[in-house]
Protein backbone atom coordinates (compact mmCIF):
# COMPACT_ATOMS: atom_id res chain seq x y z
CA UNK A 1 0.00 0.00 0.00
CA UNK A 2 1.32 3.43 -0.94
CA UNK A 3 2.11 5.65 2.03
CA UNK A 4 1.61 9.34 1.33
CA UNK A 5 3.93 11.89 2.88
CA UNK A 6 1.56 14.48 4.32
CA UNK A 7 2.15 18.09 5.24
CA UNK A 8 -0.33 19.79 7.58
CA UNK A 9 -1.03 23.52 7.26
CA UNK A 10 -2.75 24.63 10.46
CA UNK A 11 -2.62 22.48 13.60
CA UNK A 12 -5.53 23.83 15.67
CA UNK A 13 -8.61 22.17 17.12
CA UNK A 14 -9.84 20.56 13.91
CA UNK A 15 -6.58 18.65 13.52
CA UNK A 16 -6.44 17.70 17.19
CA UNK A 17 -10.07 16.58 17.54
CA UNK A 18 -10.99 15.41 14.02
CA UNK A 19 -8.12 14.77 11.64
CA UNK A 20 -5.34 13.38 13.81
CA UNK A 21 -7.51 10.60 15.35
CA UNK A 22 -8.40 9.50 11.81
CA UNK A 23 -4.79 9.68 10.62
CA UNK A 24 -3.71 7.52 13.56
CA UNK A 25 -6.00 4.77 12.31
CA UNK A 26 -4.53 5.05 8.81
CA UNK A 27 -0.86 4.96 9.69
CA UNK A 28 -0.12 2.63 6.79
CA UNK A 29 -1.51 5.20 4.34
CA UNK A 30 -0.25 8.53 5.69
CA UNK A 31 2.96 9.74 7.28
CA UNK A 32 3.16 13.33 8.56
CA UNK A 33 6.51 14.70 7.39
CA UNK A 34 5.89 18.45 7.81
CA UNK A 35 3.60 20.81 9.66
CA UNK A 36 3.00 24.54 9.75
CA UNK A 37 1.23 27.05 12.00
CA UNK A 38 1.64 30.72 12.84
CA UNK A 39 0.65 29.90 16.43
CA UNK A 40 3.63 28.33 18.19
CA UNK A 41 1.42 26.96 20.98
CA UNK A 42 -0.70 25.04 18.47
CA UNK A 43 2.41 23.73 16.74
CA UNK A 44 4.06 22.67 20.00
CA UNK A 45 0.90 20.91 21.14
CA UNK A 46 0.62 19.07 17.81
CA UNK A 47 4.24 17.91 18.00
CA UNK A 48 3.65 16.63 21.54
CA UNK A 49 0.55 14.52 20.88
CA UNK A 50 1.51 13.36 17.37
CA UNK A 51 5.18 12.70 18.20
CA UNK A 52 6.09 14.49 14.96
CA UNK A 53 9.71 15.61 14.77
CA UNK A 54 9.81 19.35 15.68
CA UNK A 55 12.53 19.83 13.06
CA UNK A 56 9.78 19.43 10.44
CA UNK A 57 7.97 22.57 11.68
CA UNK A 58 7.69 25.66 9.47
CA UNK A 59 5.94 28.90 10.36
CA UNK A 60 5.56 29.90 6.72
CA UNK A 61 3.34 27.55 4.70
CA UNK A 62 5.22 28.43 1.50
CA UNK A 63 8.26 26.63 2.94
CA UNK A 64 6.15 23.51 3.51
CA UNK A 65 4.73 23.65 -0.02
CA UNK A 66 8.25 23.93 -1.45
CA UNK A 67 9.36 20.62 0.08
CA UNK A 68 9.88 17.84 -2.47
CA UNK A 69 9.16 15.12 0.09
CA UNK A 70 5.56 16.33 0.68
CA UNK A 71 3.15 14.43 -1.56
CA UNK A 72 -0.08 15.95 -0.24
CA UNK A 73 -1.25 18.61 2.20
CA UNK A 74 -4.07 18.92 4.68
CA UNK A 75 -5.25 22.55 4.94
CA UNK A 76 -6.99 23.11 8.26
CA UNK A 77 -7.20 26.86 8.72
CA UNK A 78 -9.75 29.47 9.84
CA UNK A 79 -12.31 30.06 7.09
CA UNK A 80 -11.07 33.59 6.23
CA UNK A 81 -7.56 32.24 5.53
CA UNK A 82 -8.42 29.22 3.38
CA UNK A 83 -8.86 30.58 -0.17
CA UNK A 84 -5.36 32.04 -0.66
CA UNK A 85 -3.59 29.04 0.86
CA UNK A 86 -5.68 26.66 -1.26
CA UNK A 87 -4.75 28.58 -4.41
CA UNK A 88 -1.05 28.50 -3.49
CA UNK A 89 -1.20 24.79 -2.69
CA UNK A 90 -2.74 24.04 -6.08
CA UNK A 91 -0.05 26.08 -7.80
CA UNK A 92 2.60 24.11 -5.89
CA UNK A 93 1.42 20.87 -7.52
CA UNK A 94 0.47 19.09 -4.29
CA UNK A 95 -2.58 16.91 -3.79
CA UNK A 96 -4.90 18.62 -1.32
CA UNK A 97 -7.43 17.81 1.35
CA UNK A 98 -8.84 21.16 2.51
CA UNK A 99 -11.22 21.90 5.35
CA UNK A 100 -14.60 23.30 4.35
CA UNK A 101 -15.73 25.78 3.22
CA UNK A 102 -13.17 26.88 0.64
CA UNK A 103 -13.82 30.58 1.04
CA UNK A 104 -15.13 33.21 3.42
CA UNK A 105 -17.58 34.28 0.72
CA UNK A 106 -19.11 32.65 -2.32
CA UNK A 107 -17.23 35.21 -4.43
CA UNK A 108 -13.94 33.83 -3.06
CA UNK A 109 -15.02 30.28 -3.89
CA UNK A 110 -16.09 31.41 -7.39
CA UNK A 111 -12.70 33.04 -7.98
CA UNK A 112 -10.94 29.74 -7.30
CA UNK A 113 -12.71 27.87 -10.11
CA UNK A 114 -10.20 28.77 -12.87
CA UNK A 115 -7.29 27.63 -10.68
CA UNK A 116 -9.08 24.40 -9.73
CA UNK A 117 -9.78 23.62 -13.39
CA UNK A 118 -6.20 24.41 -14.38
CA UNK A 119 -4.96 21.79 -11.89
CA UNK A 120 -7.45 19.04 -12.63
CA UNK A 121 -4.65 16.46 -12.63
CA UNK A 122 -4.17 16.98 -8.88
CA UNK A 123 -6.47 15.38 -6.32
CA UNK A 124 -8.50 18.05 -4.53
CA UNK A 125 -10.92 17.13 -1.78
CA UNK A 126 -12.87 19.69 0.25
CA UNK A 127 -13.52 17.98 3.59
CA UNK A 128 -17.19 17.13 4.10
CA UNK A 129 -17.28 14.24 6.52
CA UNK A 130 -21.09 13.90 6.28
CA UNK A 131 -20.70 12.43 2.78
CA UNK A 132 -18.83 9.56 4.44
CA UNK A 133 -20.94 8.92 7.55
CA UNK A 134 -22.14 5.31 7.64
CA UNK A 135 -25.60 6.24 8.96
CA UNK A 136 -26.23 8.70 6.12
CA UNK A 137 -24.77 6.32 3.55
CA UNK A 138 -27.12 3.60 4.80
CA UNK A 139 -30.11 5.95 4.62
CA UNK A 140 -29.08 7.02 1.12
CA UNK A 141 -28.77 3.40 0.02
CA UNK A 142 -32.26 2.58 1.34
CA UNK A 143 -33.82 5.59 -0.36
CA UNK A 144 -32.13 4.72 -3.68
CA UNK A 145 -33.63 1.24 -3.34
CA UNK A 146 -37.12 2.79 -2.98
CA UNK A 147 -37.58 1.98 0.71
CA UNK A 148 -40.32 4.61 1.18
CA UNK A 149 -41.40 5.07 -2.43
CA UNK A 150 -41.28 8.40 -4.22
CA UNK A 151 -40.09 11.11 -1.85
CA UNK A 152 -42.31 14.19 -1.72
CA UNK A 153 -41.51 16.08 1.52
CA UNK A 154 -38.66 16.56 4.01
CA UNK A 155 -38.24 18.43 7.27
CA UNK A 156 -34.98 19.04 9.10
CA UNK A 157 -34.43 20.89 12.37
CA UNK A 158 -31.45 21.45 14.61
CA UNK A 159 -31.70 23.70 17.65
CA UNK A 160 -28.67 23.84 19.92
CA UNK A 161 -27.12 26.37 22.28
CA UNK A 162 -24.00 28.07 20.92
CA UNK A 163 -21.66 29.95 23.24
CA UNK A 164 -17.84 30.13 23.43
CA UNK A 165 -16.65 27.16 25.48
CA UNK A 166 -12.95 26.58 26.26
CA UNK A 167 -11.52 23.72 24.24
CA UNK A 168 -14.45 23.60 21.80
CA UNK A 169 -14.76 24.97 18.27
CA UNK A 170 -17.08 27.73 19.49
CA UNK A 171 -14.18 29.20 21.49
CA UNK A 172 -12.03 30.18 18.50
CA UNK A 173 -12.13 33.97 18.05
CA UNK A 174 -12.42 33.86 14.25
CA UNK A 175 -15.70 31.96 14.68
CA UNK A 176 -17.40 34.23 17.18
CA UNK A 177 -16.05 37.42 15.61
CA UNK A 178 -18.08 36.76 12.47
CA UNK A 179 -15.21 37.28 10.04
CA UNK A 180 -17.00 35.48 7.19
CA UNK A 181 -20.44 35.63 5.57
CA UNK A 182 -23.13 33.65 7.35
CA UNK A 183 -21.29 33.07 10.62
CA UNK A 184 -22.32 29.78 12.26
CA UNK A 185 -24.97 29.23 9.57
CA UNK A 186 -22.24 28.83 6.94
CA UNK A 187 -19.79 27.02 9.19
CA UNK A 188 -22.27 24.36 10.30
CA UNK A 189 -25.03 24.68 7.72
CA UNK A 190 -22.97 23.26 4.88
CA UNK A 191 -23.10 19.91 6.71
CA UNK A 192 -26.89 19.91 6.74
CA UNK A 193 -27.02 20.94 3.09
CA UNK A 194 -24.66 18.06 2.30
CA UNK A 195 -27.05 15.65 4.04
CA UNK A 196 -30.11 16.99 2.24
CA UNK A 197 -28.38 16.73 -1.13
CA UNK A 198 -27.33 13.14 -0.38
CA UNK A 199 -30.86 12.08 0.52
CA UNK A 200 -33.16 14.48 -1.36
CA UNK A 201 -31.14 15.57 -4.38
CA UNK A 202 -30.07 19.01 -5.54
CA UNK A 203 -31.99 22.06 -4.41
CA UNK A 204 -33.74 23.86 -7.25
CA UNK A 205 -35.16 26.91 -5.48
CA UNK A 206 -34.78 28.33 -2.00
CA UNK A 207 -36.51 30.96 0.14
CA UNK A 208 -34.92 31.95 3.43
CA UNK A 209 -35.44 33.98 6.59
CA UNK A 210 -32.80 34.82 9.21
CA UNK A 211 -32.55 36.43 12.63
CA UNK A 212 -29.71 37.12 15.04
CA UNK A 213 -30.50 36.56 18.70
CA UNK A 214 -27.09 35.32 19.82
CA UNK A 215 -24.82 38.10 21.14
CA UNK A 216 -21.84 35.73 21.51
CA UNK A 217 -21.31 35.04 17.80
CA UNK A 218 -21.28 37.23 14.71
CA UNK A 219 -23.66 36.54 11.86
CA UNK A 220 -27.25 35.24 11.92
CA UNK A 221 -28.06 32.66 14.57
CA UNK A 222 -31.55 31.63 13.41
CA UNK A 223 -32.11 30.31 9.93
CA UNK A 224 -35.28 28.98 8.30
CA UNK A 225 -35.59 28.03 4.63
CA UNK A 226 -38.20 26.52 2.31
CA UNK A 227 -36.80 24.30 -0.42
CA UNK A 228 -37.86 22.77 -3.71
CA UNK A 229 -35.75 19.90 -4.99
CA UNK A 230 -35.02 18.89 -8.56
CA UNK A 231 -37.63 16.09 -8.61
CA UNK A 232 -40.36 18.48 -7.34
CA UNK A 233 -40.13 17.30 -3.72
CA UNK A 234 -40.41 20.11 -1.20
CA UNK A 235 -39.01 20.63 2.27
CA UNK A 236 -37.85 22.99 4.95
CA UNK A 237 -34.86 23.35 7.23
CA UNK A 238 -34.46 25.22 10.51
CA UNK A 239 -31.12 25.84 12.18
CA UNK A 240 -31.07 27.74 15.47
CA UNK A 241 -27.99 28.55 17.54
CA UNK A 242 -29.16 30.81 20.40
CA UNK A 243 -27.08 31.60 23.46
CA UNK A 244 -29.79 30.27 25.79
CA UNK A 245 -29.78 26.72 27.09
CA UNK A 246 -32.20 24.74 24.93
CA UNK A 247 -34.72 22.32 26.48
CA UNK A 248 -34.66 18.67 25.36
CA UNK A 249 -36.05 18.48 21.86
CA UNK A 250 -36.14 16.15 18.88
CA UNK A 251 -33.62 17.21 16.28
CA UNK A 252 -33.06 15.41 13.01
CA UNK A 253 -34.47 14.78 9.55
CA UNK A 254 -37.81 13.29 8.60
CA UNK A 255 -38.50 12.25 5.00
CA UNK A 256 -41.98 11.47 3.70
CA UNK A 257 -42.58 9.17 0.75
CA UNK A 258 -45.54 7.62 -1.01
CA UNK A 259 -45.02 4.27 0.75
CA UNK A 260 -43.55 5.20 4.12
CA UNK A 261 -41.73 7.71 6.34
CA UNK A 262 -38.07 7.77 7.39
CA UNK A 263 -36.63 9.52 10.46
CA UNK A 264 -32.86 10.05 10.72
CA UNK A 265 -31.29 11.08 14.01
CA UNK A 266 -27.57 10.28 13.91
CA UNK A 267 -27.05 6.51 13.95
CA UNK A 268 -30.73 5.74 14.68
CA UNK A 269 -32.92 5.46 11.58
CA UNK A 270 -36.63 4.66 11.83
CA UNK A 271 -38.81 3.59 8.90
CA UNK A 272 -42.59 3.50 9.32
CA UNK A 273 -44.52 1.61 6.63
CA UNK A 274 -47.30 -0.95 6.33
CA UNK A 275 -48.21 -0.53 10.04
CA UNK A 276 -44.70 -1.64 11.04
CA UNK A 277 -41.76 0.23 12.54
CA UNK A 278 -38.27 -0.79 11.46
CA UNK A 279 -35.59 0.55 13.81
CA UNK A 280 -32.09 0.53 12.32
CA UNK A 281 -29.07 1.37 14.47
CA UNK A 282 -25.98 1.87 12.32
CA UNK A 283 -22.58 1.10 13.75
CA UNK A 284 -20.55 4.15 12.81
CA UNK A 285 -16.83 3.57 12.42
CA UNK A 286 -16.40 7.25 13.15
CA UNK A 287 -18.22 10.46 12.08
CA UNK A 288 -16.84 10.03 8.57
CA UNK A 289 -13.27 11.28 8.92
CA UNK A 290 -11.59 7.89 8.50
CA UNK A 291 -13.60 7.17 5.34
CA UNK A 292 -12.82 10.68 4.11
CA UNK A 293 -9.07 10.14 4.41
CA UNK A 294 -9.44 6.70 2.83
CA UNK A 295 -11.18 8.23 -0.18
CA UNK A 296 -8.44 10.86 -0.44
CA UNK A 297 -5.68 8.25 -0.25
CA UNK A 298 -7.39 5.99 -2.79
CA UNK A 299 -7.83 8.93 -5.16
CA UNK A 300 -4.11 9.75 -5.02
CA UNK A 301 -2.82 6.18 -4.99
CA UNK A 302 -5.35 4.45 -7.26
CA UNK A 303 -7.21 7.16 -9.19
CA UNK A 304 -10.48 6.54 -7.32
CA UNK A 305 -13.14 9.26 -7.75
CA UNK A 306 -13.38 11.87 -4.99
CA UNK A 307 -16.86 12.11 -3.51
CA UNK A 308 -16.20 15.34 -1.61
CA UNK A 309 -14.89 17.27 -4.60
CA UNK A 310 -14.76 21.04 -5.17
CA UNK A 311 -18.14 21.16 -6.91
CA UNK A 312 -19.96 19.43 -4.06
CA UNK A 313 -18.54 21.81 -1.47
CA UNK A 314 -19.22 24.79 -3.73
CA UNK A 315 -22.89 23.70 -4.01
CA UNK A 316 -23.15 23.66 -0.22
CA UNK A 317 -21.80 27.20 -0.02
CA UNK A 318 -24.04 28.29 -2.88
CA UNK A 319 -27.23 27.15 -1.16
CA UNK A 320 -26.33 28.79 2.16
CA UNK A 321 -25.56 32.06 0.40
CA UNK A 322 -28.70 31.82 -1.74
CA UNK A 323 -30.72 31.46 1.45
CA UNK A 324 -29.02 34.50 3.01
CA UNK A 325 -29.54 36.52 -0.18
CA UNK A 326 -33.15 35.36 -0.36
CA UNK A 327 -33.73 36.60 3.19
CA UNK A 328 -32.20 39.98 2.37
CA UNK A 329 -34.23 40.36 -0.84
CA UNK A 330 -37.40 38.69 0.46
CA UNK A 331 -37.49 36.63 -2.73
CA UNK A 332 -37.27 33.08 -4.03
CA UNK A 333 -33.94 32.30 -5.71
CA UNK A 334 -32.81 29.51 -8.03
CA UNK A 335 -29.60 27.49 -8.09
CA UNK A 336 -26.86 28.12 -10.65
CA UNK A 337 -27.10 25.60 -13.49
CA UNK A 338 -24.12 26.95 -15.43
CA UNK A 339 -21.55 25.42 -13.09
CA UNK A 340 -23.09 21.94 -13.42
CA UNK A 341 -26.54 20.45 -14.06
CA UNK A 342 -28.72 19.74 -11.03
CA UNK A 343 -29.36 16.08 -10.28
CA UNK A 344 -31.66 13.79 -8.31
CA UNK A 345 -28.62 11.93 -6.93
CA UNK A 346 -25.81 14.51 -7.09
CA UNK A 347 -23.65 12.79 -4.45
CA UNK A 348 -22.06 9.45 -5.26
CA UNK A 349 -22.53 6.73 -2.65
CA UNK A 350 -18.96 6.23 -1.45
CA UNK A 351 -17.59 2.69 -1.53
CA UNK A 352 -14.02 1.75 -0.58
CA UNK A 353 -11.77 1.27 -3.60
CA UNK A 354 -12.33 -2.12 -5.20
CA UNK A 355 -15.70 -2.79 -3.53
CA UNK A 356 -18.77 -3.05 -5.73
CA UNK A 357 -21.56 -3.54 -3.17
CA UNK A 358 -22.66 -1.47 -0.20
CA UNK A 359 -22.20 -2.80 3.32
CA UNK A 360 -22.36 -1.34 6.82
CA UNK A 361 -23.06 -2.98 10.18
CA UNK A 362 -26.70 -2.40 11.16
CA UNK A 363 -28.82 -3.76 14.02
CA UNK A 364 -32.45 -3.86 12.87
CA UNK A 365 -35.52 -4.40 15.05
CA UNK A 366 -39.10 -4.51 13.75
CA UNK A 367 -42.16 -3.60 15.83
CA UNK A 368 -45.89 -3.99 15.21
CA UNK A 369 -47.57 -0.62 14.69
CA UNK A 370 -46.10 2.83 14.23
CA UNK A 371 -44.03 3.32 17.39
CA UNK A 372 -41.46 5.97 18.32
CA UNK A 373 -37.86 5.57 19.40
What's the SSE pattern?
EHEHEHEHEHEHEHHEEEEEEEHHEE
Looking at this structure, what is the CATH superfamily of the largest domain?
A: Dihydrodipicolinate Reductase, domain 2
Largest sheet: 10 strands, mixed
Taken as a percent bin, the fraction of beta residues is 25-35%
CATH topology of the largest domain: Dihydrodipicolinate Reductase, domain 2
Radius of gyration (Å): 21 Å
Average pLDDT confidence is: 95
Number of helices: 10
**Within the largest sheet, what's the order of strands?**
15-8-9-10-7-11-12-13-14-16
From the spread of the alpha carbons, the general shape counts as globular
Distance between the termini: 43 Å
CATH architecture of the largest domain: 2-Layer Sandwich
DSSP, total strands: 16
Q: List the domain count as a whole number.
A: 2
User: What helical percentage do the residues reach?
Assistant: 25-40%
Poorly predicted runs: none
Task: Give the oligomeric state.
Answer: single chain
The helix-and-strand class reads alpha/beta
| Name of the CATH first level of the largest domain | Alpha Beta
